[in-house]
Amino acid sequence: METLRDILDAVATGVFPPADGGTTVLPQPSPRDAGVLAFTAHTVVFTDEDPAWVRETLRAADGDPLAASMSPRFLTALLDRTGRTAETIDAVLVGEPLPGEPACALREIEDLGHPRVAYARRRRDGVRAWAADGGVLALGRGVAGRLEVSVEVDEGARHRGLGRLLVTAARQLAGEPLWAQVAPGNARGLRVFQAAGYRPVGAELLLRPKTPV
């Protein structure tokens, strides 16, 4: 049986699910992670809920069938059904690993209570983080074990190219395809990741347990 990780690994190499208007329903890869991934004309729903319920609810959604999986009606029904919560629909990007050393000086953060580290650890496993002058970079295992990146740039250090340096450094530290989730309204963030060579591949809504798993 194809797993969510199989699909993600293929997408990272440029091989996408068929653009056939279909929906693939898969079990959750972990108790923590459930959600919806929308690619071009194909959706992957990963949840332990009944696949028949997922398909029936998608058919009942109003509007364009190709957009049903990200429609407010379907997502609200899925959240109600699972008893989970969500933050925002994100654009999903992936970057290949890069050779070489980061162009900015990085110091690994050992303090697990650091706010950026604590935030990342609620969403990912095996988190490591590095501080730069004016910013923080974190890597960790997220959905289906994929390697994910998040960055934070201090207000006073913005508009100087530090964000691009950090997300480029992440590709140099990764050693494997690296995934990023960016809110579509964060146009500046999207430009930074794309300028650093990350490719947009889809959209995603993660359903978070209301209590930590």
In summary, what is this structure?
It comes from Streptomyces nogalater. The protein has 213 residues and is an alpha+beta fold.
Number of strands: 10
The biggest beta sheet is recorded as: 10 strands, mixed
Sequence of strands across the biggest β-sheet: 1-3-2-10-4-9-8-7-6-5
Number of helices: 6
The Cα radius of gyration reads 18 Å
How would you classify the quaternary structure? single chain
Strand and helix order:
HEEEHHEEHEEEHEHE
Would you tell me the structural class of the helices and strands?
A: alpha+beta
Portion of residues in helices? 25-40%
Strand content: 25-35%
Low-confidence stretches: none
**Shape field:** globular
Averaging pLDDT over every residue, what do you get?
92
The separation of the N and C termini measures: 26 Å
